[in-house]
Design a protein that fits this description.
15 helices; 2 domains; 13 strands; six-stranded antiparallel beta sheet; alpha/beta; Beta-Lactamase; 40% helix; Rossmann fold; seven-stranded mixed beta sheet
């Protein structure tokens, strides 16, 4: 039997600056700390342990849903500690779970490592903004940071549709923030978005564009004068466009291309990489904004041209993932292996970094 309850395990995770707790039968409780999995204790959990740890924090309706669907997304709030996003599922007939830590405070964009372009998204009054990346890349944190900044800075009626609710927003002095959870406050993302259109919403936040109907409704809302902010599981702007278009039937793609060329305002693709100068992880991003060239590219579905347009789009606030990685590398925040494993052009990283090292060596010689 396990010697700790779930709250104690969650406390261990936060005390070690971890992001996730994993409970699996046949293994010790594991935490993800700065991107790496480490055991929290020496004890090995069995199926009875994991079942008890999970069921003890679920409501009766949630237990029934887990039993019926064999998996469940939920949230747990621990007083004086914060919120945790939970996912429970059956594995070989046993209940196992993951818990992701959601701090009580929402970081500001600059504290996350975002620059002026992403901060500028908070000033938008209409259109579609997408935050993308793999699981664990900080998409939700960026999404919520943008949302809270809007609430703090201006008068806005904000409707946030989430599954599950993670960060809890604060109303601003001149703003309202309504958070609705799929499964308890609404049946689907698309249904809640259609309701938001009738609720005088200025900003609609959708935790993820998971399906065709949600994508369709989000694009329509953005096209009709609302600011829509959401996430996708893609790693670069080109893949983001491909993912959206592939969701639609071929006969609708020309129309969707015209819609996106008109309403898309920006895409930020992000990665979290282990730091070498201090504990923690560094944020690397690719940022795409809209100009006439990018709008034509999307309208004509010439997505292969997007990286080149981003590369020369600096005056419009754009930068490539390679630009971001090179900056982190040259400043000593990440190592060369991390930069090369996430870059698009390895020769660019090698050449530019070696040039920087030579310039520093020459400067050091002149100082002597």
């Amino acid at each position: 039997m396990h010697s700790h309850d779930l709250i104690e395990y969650l406390l261990m995770v936060t005390e070690r600056d971890g992001s996730d707790l994993h409970l699996s039968a046949g293994a010790p409780p594991m935490a993800r700390i700065h991107g790496s999995l480490v055991p929290l204790t020496d004890e090995i959990l069995d199926g009875t342990d994991t079942r008890e740890l999970v069921l003890n924090v679920l409501k009766e309706t949630q237990r029934a849903a887990l039993e019926h669907n064999w998996e469940l997304d939920f949230a747990v709030h621990v007083e004086n500690l914060g919120r945790f996003r939970g996912n429970a599922c059956y594995v070989l007939g046993r209940i196992e779970a993951n818990f992701r830590y959601i701090p009580d405070f929402i970081p500001q964009l600059q504290d996350l490592g975002h620059g002026a372009t992403v901060a500028g998204f908070t000033k938008l009054r209409e259109g579609l903004v997408l935050v993308t990346g793999v699981s664990g890349s900080g998409k939700t944190t960026t999404l919520c940071s943008i949302t809270q900044a809007i609430a703090n800075e201006r008068a806005a009626n904000i409707v946030s549709i989430e599954d599950p609710i993670e960060f809890v927003f604060a109303h601003g002095a001149r703003s309202l923030v309504r958070q609705r959870q799929v499964g308890s406050d609404t049946q689907t993302f698309a249904q809640a978005m259609r309701s938001a259109l009738r609720q005088d919403a200025d900003v609609i936040v959708v935790s993820e564009l998971r399906d065709l109907e949600t994508m369709r409704t989000a694009i329509t809302a953005a096209e009709t004068g609302h600011l829509v902010i959401s996430t996708l599981h893609t790693t670069e702007a080109t893949a983001t466009m491909t993912r959206i278009f592939d969701a639609f039937p071929e006969e609708q793609q020309d129309y969707v291309a015209a819609q996106l060329a008109n309403c898309l305002r920006g895409v930020v693709c992000q990665h979290l990489l282990p730091r070498i100068d201090a504990p923690g992880r560094a944020l690397a991003t690719e940022v795409m904004t809209m100009n006439s060239g990018m709008a034509r590219c999307i309208r004509d579905r010439r997505f292969a041209q997007m990286p080149g347009l981003i590369q020369v789009g600096g005056p419009h606030g754009m930068h490539t993932i390679d630009d971001s990685l090179l900056m982190l590398l040259n400043n000593g925040y990440i190592g060369i292996d991390s930069a090369l494993s996430h870059c698009r052009d390895k020769s660019f990283i090698h050449t530019q970094h070696e040039r920087e090292l030579r310039a520093r060596a020459d400067m050091a010689k002149r100082k002597r």
